Amino acid sequence: MSFFAVLPKYLPDLAHGLWLTIALTLIAAALGFLLSVPLVLALLYTKGIPRMLARLFITLVRGTPLLVQLFFIYYGIPALGIRIQPFNAALIGFILNSAAYQAEYLKGGFMAISSEQMEAAYSIGLSKWQAVRVVIFPQAFRFAIPALSNEIIYLVKYTSVAYVIQVPELLSQAKFFASDTFFHLQIYFLIGVVYLLLIWVVSKLSDMLEHKLHIPGFDIAHLR
Amino acid sequence: MLESVIYILTNIPLLMKGVWMAVQITVLSVLLGMVIGIAVAFLRIYGSKNMRRLVSFYEWVFRGIPQLVLLFIVYFGLPGIGINLSPFLCVVIGLGLCSSAYQAQIYRGAILSIGSEQMEAGLSLGLSKTRTLFYVILPQAVRLSLPGFTNEFTIVLKDSPLAYAVGIAEILKYGRDLIVSSFRPFEIYLAAALIYFVLFQLFYYLFKAIASRYQVPGYIISGE
Question: Whose CB among A138, A204, B122, B171 lies 3.0–4.6 Å from B18's, allowing a Cys bridge?
């Protein structure tokens, strides 16, 4: 039997794997972003303990391999009596990672906004948090879009690591397929192309978002 | 709690057996990536139009395919067409190819950020094109690419535990062996994370020291 003769039978499984890969990416990117905002605010606009904790969190997450973190969450934490499903374990790992990296990229966006703008906001009577919310953040976010989209591309790629803790995502399904049919090279090649397509879509979406949020006169490309 | 700490501390030496393997994989993968990356960077800048297209396609592919998928193509796929490599070599090739695409971008950025006037200045002094490249452009480009290189090195270090997926005896594998006998995954994986964290910091500060050692006074490296 040729590769393309057996492939249709396994397509539903592979499609399910693809769906899990996309779900992992989207949820981790969205929740990671929500977490990254307080992280970056703590890093830049607070002093003492909140700032220290944010720094510590980012350093620890960025300083250890993703695979080790996933092993710790999936195999380590249940030893304390909390059961975690593979998908949820992977999701927790990806959210924490994504939050740490997105915070770092957002920070770059914040740093690109000159400090006079903060002073200008104070001078028209805004409080610190009002200034951050309505003046600084909208600009910082626009600055950070390219870096943030890069982070989502990394996320698409790193969801494949979830294979190691038995999440039935795209790579795992390919592995099942290969074990059944022995078409190793063909199937890994095929899903390699699928990952490339996913990443192409992400970069196109990011370009669209950048274009949509573009403010005439506020030229991001020029300032960067 | 205290008992757990003692358990972690007594088991770190056993996990340390895997450190040498992790370092070997990282250093060799980065070196392979460096050799290909430099070639790709030069071809992308100085190559013919078709060559430039070809190498930018190469960069796009190897930046987009997940490391683990690439590793599986090499490890499970290549034997299907008669190429049998040791697991260790597979990991180095997989991580190295992926890293080469990223390193190519780092070197290209560094070379391009040195103004073309310097090439003209070199030629006007009677140096040949290759000599200008070697004595004028390269010493600056290497310094400029150090921050990006450091970053890439730590990324490869954090990807090196993926070797676990093809059965290589590195830190996670030794951890797994310990867990089979003691059933204490929480402490063991915490210890593994700690070891990687220390390794990460060690290499990070090593490269930082190298960068400041070779800094030319008055010649400010942007991005530092």
Answer: B171
Within 13 Å and on the Cβ side, how many CA atoms surround A150?
12
| Contact (CB<8Å) A71/B172 | yes
* Helix H or strand E encompassing A70: helix A66-71
With beta carbons under 8 A apart, name residues in chain A contacting B61: 196
Interchain contact A75–B (C-beta under 8 A) = yes
Distances from the Cα of B62 to the Cα of A36, A69, B75, B96, B145, angstroms: 28, 25, 16, 10, 20
Reported as a single tens digit per residue, the pLDDT across A9-35 is 999 999 999 999 999 999 999 999 999
The reply to whether CATH 1.10.10.10 applies to domain B2-213 is no
Question: CATH classification of A3-223, choosing from 1.10.3720.10, 1.10.3210.10, 1.40.20.10, 3.30.1330.60?
Answer: 1.10.3720.10
Contact at CB, A72 and B193, closer than 8 angstroms: yes
Q: How far apart are CA A188 and CA A178, in angstroms?
A: 8
Residue among B81, B157, B189 with most chain A CBs within 10 A, to mutate:
B189
Q: Report the residue from A75, A195, A196 with minimal CB separation from B185.
A: A75
* Sequence-ordered list of residues with C-beta below 8 angstroms from that of A193, at least 6 positions apart, any chain: none
**Cβ-defined contact of A160 to B64 (cutoff 8 Å):** no
Q: Do B68 and A161 touch (CB under 8 A)?
A: yes
Instruction: Quickly count: other Cβ atoms within 10 Å of residue B220's Cβ.
Output: 9
Q: pLDDT digits over B2-48, tens only?
A: 888 888 888 888 888 889 999 999 999 999 999 999 999 989 988 89
Q: What ipTM did this prediction achieve?
A: 0.87
- Taking contacts as CB-CB distances below 8 angstroms, the residues of chain A near B77 are 184-186, 188-189
Nearest residue in B to A172, CA atom: B69
| Residue A1: CA count within 13 A, CB half-sphere | 11
Check CB contact under 8 Å for B69 and A160: yes
Going by C-alpha positions, the residue among A177, A176, A170 that lies closest to residue A192 is A170
Tell whether pTM > 0.80: yes
User: Residue ranges of the domains in chain A?
Assistant: 3-223
